[in-house]
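Moderator note: this is an archived Q&A kept for reference. The question asked for a predicted structure of one protein chain; the sequence and the answer are reproduced below.
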Amino acid sequence: MREVCVSGLGALTPIGSTLDEFWSGLVDPQLKFAPPTGCPSVGVLVGEILSTDFITDSAVPNPSLCDRSALLAVAAARSALDDAGLTEGSYDPGRVAVILGSGAAGVMTIDEQYDRLYRQRRQRVSPLTVPKMMSSSPASWIAMAFGFRGPSFVVASACASATHSIGVAAQLIGAGVVDAAVCGGAESFLAEGALTAWNALGVVSKDTCRPFAAGRSGLVLAEGAGVLVLESADHARARGFVPRATVLGFGSSADAGHLTRPSADGMAAAMTEALRSGAVAPADVDYVNAHGTGTLANDVTETAALKSVFGADSVPVMSSTKGSTGHGLGASGGIEAVAALLALEHGVLPPTANYDAPDPQCDLDCVPNVAREHSVRTVMSNSFAFGGLNASVVFAGVRP
């Protein structure tokens, strides 16, 4: 298997549309969740991208042809490609893959057209509805925008989608199928029907997201995109590029148990496989970006899983950045992989925001409220989804 490296990063989130803005928003959380601008009466708070620059300055010739999730994906991909210096002539387009994660790309389009059909009583929906609502559209638009002709598809595994996409992309590169890949995730879920459905589950917070804290009351939904450019280390060296990091290991598992109740054993299996596949000892992990949704069930279960993998008294310092960004659903693993890699580069751990008081059942060091300088050489990023779908990826600084 070829060594796989991280060459570029791109993030487009409610706390920033550049890496510098994103990092600043992580280490000094300022975001105040608010009602969605398109449907404020739904009764939930969200993390929303209010700037329209990514639409007006899009690499897509006609943004009206795209669902919002695809526009987010293309914008974040362009940032990551610029960061990687992967310019035309430095790669074979047929050996660049686009493996993107999205839990439900197209939801905004579906909601708009249902409104047109049932509320406005129109006789027809837009003829663009089908191509815009397809779950695969974000990957297709990235491939078309940049001319990539390698394998291209979307991984849909709910909130683990983006982390699964990173793992699959790394495996394709490692096996020599492609030289480089655009991966990560994008999601825009702030539609009236979708938000109403999530609210009906009883897992959405009424005020803010407090991962691992005693006062946590649920997640806060958010839109966004987090994209990585991966390539083989040989390919990076051949074009004279020094990558940001190395992909060491990837693991995934299924609980095969309950549709919405998480399993510590399933989470632990994914983390254990990520460590095994990368030949990483548990003691070598310096930081974990936890899934940390802020729900009562997830955070207790993830705490137990981390203790199972690393030892009850040996869990690395960890934090959940969802208190700062909100929960990007299928995009969250991409956004959080970018966060973990920036922590690796800066030697600073982003805090778990909105932490009000310790919960005895979540008795781990979660960097409450204030960022912390910390020696970081190896990081893990976790994503655990409804349906018992788990994924974990391990990164390290570039090997000499």
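Archived answer notes: The two ends are 18 Å apart (CA to CA).
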